[in-house]
Structure formats: structure tokens, C-alpha cells
Amino acid sequence: MSLVARHLEEAGLPTVVVGSARDIVEECGVSRFVFTDFPLGNPTGKPGDVEMQTAITGMALDLLEHSWQPRTTMQTPFVWNADQNDDWRDHFMKVDDSNRAALAAAGDQRRVSQEAAKAEGRGRG
Amino acid sequence: MADDRRTHRSHVSYIDKSRGYYGAQGYPQAYQWAYHQDVPFAELRKPLSDCRVGLVTTSFFERKVDESAVASAGVKEPYAALCDDALGGLYNKDLFWDKDNTHTDDLDTYLPINRLRELAAQGRIGALADRFYGVPTDYSHRRTSRRDAPQILEFAREDELDAVLLVPL
């Protein structure tokens, strides 16, 4: 998505990326980025929270209006879980002794499926 | 919230996490993420209250998937569709997001069509374009840069957009 934003900017069209994967967007490098530190899935606000959705969308518009140089990141003030905010971060894509064997098995299974698909001429081409 | 001290950055590094996660699945070669030193920058050419704004998503309409095909084998193309047709929600279960901690049943948490229409009614922007645009999440930078991005630019020009919000899930 960040590559698309860059292409539009190169063509003279101003953009703002609104997302929660800060490192991926910033490494790619975009003109404007509104970052909310939430689990991936709700970059423009929590479900059912119209006020927050309006605020985040509004901040994206603010950034379009007021930024004057590329790589401008604005972090919104919203917190996913004020009491246990590290829980979702630690849980996502976790690798530890509790799931290491299961992950290795899932990878093996996936490679078998991909090989089968390749042999049948399916796949992305 | 109380002030705190940390030995690591607070926000998640998905680059670091995915390297470990796929490494644990037996993929020794880490994904090569896009990185650029230089970043292009275009300015608004008119007041925001006169601008027609477009929205880009990584979600798609639900499709019939060939059950014999592996999930990742489906080919997606960039698309443009009427915002009105998205109001019932889009399909993104095949995308990578935190399904344990949240959901995407509320469209405006990832494609704020209703919120932007309200902001347009208040005069904050000129209008939200009638169409929105979808772009595949692609492993290949080349496909994204050479196939998808030019197509999204073409849609944007057809709809005479003045600015674009891109919202990756």
C-alpha cells in the first residue's frame, strides 16, 4: 500500500496512509502517515466508536492540509487497552516453546500444499 | 496512564515479528521489505474544503474461491467500486490482521466511508468520491509498483481526485 502512495505522490497526487504497522510504512517511506498503535485490523478506529473514527479520519485530513515535507508521521493519542496494553502486542505472531512445534508443522504443511499447487499449474503465475 | 520506562520500543515491529514467525515455520529467507531513502511529496493544490477525496483499501468483495485451490493461490487485481456497494462490509478474512484481538465487522474501522461523508457534509472536504479503490496485498513489490499502483492512479484520474487516503488493514 505504501508503494501505491509513493506512486500517486510521484504523479503529483497528495496522499496520506492511515495504518497501524508503523515500521513497515516508515521503512518504505511515505509522504504522510497517521499511526494508531492498535492491533492490525482497525486503523481508523475501534469498532462502534464513531467519535474515535471521526477523530482519526480528521487527523488524516489535518495532515493533508498542514504537512510541508515527506515522512511526516502523526501518532494519534488512542490506546487499545489502557490496563493491559502489552498483551495484544506480545500475543500477536508469538513464537515460544508453547507453539514452536506447531509452527514448524504448519510450515511443512504449507510447503506441501504449495508444491502440489505448483505441480498442477495453479498458483499466482 | 502512568509514565513508564522501557528497554524496547513500545510499538510492534511487524518486520521483526514476521521474520521470527516465518523463520519458525521453516522459511530461512527473511522477507525483503520495501525500503527507500527518498520520499516523494505532493502538496494540495486547493483548499481541502474544495477537494474530492478518494479511499484505497486492501480489502476485497467476497469471492467464490475454488475449494481445490490453496488459499494463497487466488489472483487478485486492483479494482474500483461504488462506495455504496461497500456499506455492507468487505471481505478481509484472508488478510493478515489480529483476528484474536479485534474484528472488522464495522466498515468504518478500516474504510471510513461514512465518516468521510459526514465530514464532507460538514464542509471539511469537498466530497468523497463515489468510488473507492482496492489494491491487493502482494508479496511482489514489482507487481504492486508496476501493475497495481498505475491502475490506482488511473482510477484516481478518472474520478478527478485531489487527494487520497490509503488504509492498509
List keywords for this structure.
heterodimer, A: 125 residues, mainly alpha, 3-stranded parallel β-sheet, 5 helices, 3 strands, 10% strand, extended, B: 169 residues, alpha/beta, 5-stranded mixed β-sheet
Structure description:
The complex is a heterodimer of chains A (125) and B (169). Chain A folds into two domains: 2-82, no CATH class; 95-125. Chain A has five helices and three strands, in the order H-E-H-E-H-E-H-H. Chain A has helices at residues 2-10, 22-28, 50-66, 87-91, 100-119, and strands at 15-19, 32-35, 72-75. The mean pLDDT of chain A is 93. In chain B, strands 1, 2, 3, 4 and 5 form a five-stranded mixed beta sheet that branches. With 169 residues, chain B is an alpha/beta fold. Classes of the chains: A mainly alpha (125), B alpha/beta (169). The interface between A and B is large, with 81 and 81 residues.
General shape of chain A: extended
H and E order of chain B: HEEHEEHE
Q: Counting H and I runs of at least 4 residues, what is the number of helices of chain A? A: 5
Radius of gyration of chain A: 19 Å
Q: How much β-strand is present in the residues of chain A?
A: 5-15%
Q: Structural class, from helix and strand content of chain B? A: alpha/beta
Strand content of chain B: 5-15%
Poorly predicted segments of chain B: none
Total of helices of chain B? 3
Quick one: biggest sheet of chain B?
5 strands, mixed
What number of structural domains do the residues of chain A give?
Answer: 2
Chain pair sharing the greatest interface: A-B, 81 and 81 residues
Report Rg of chain B.
Answer: 19 Å
Give me the secondary-structure category of chain A: mainly alpha
Percent in helix of chain A: 40-55%
> Whole-number average pLDDT of chain B?
91
What's the helical proportion of residues of chain B? 10-25%
- Element pattern of chain A in H and E: HEHEHEHH
What can be said about the biggest beta sheet of chain A?
3 strands, parallel
Number of strands of chain A: 3
Mean pLDDT of chain A: 93
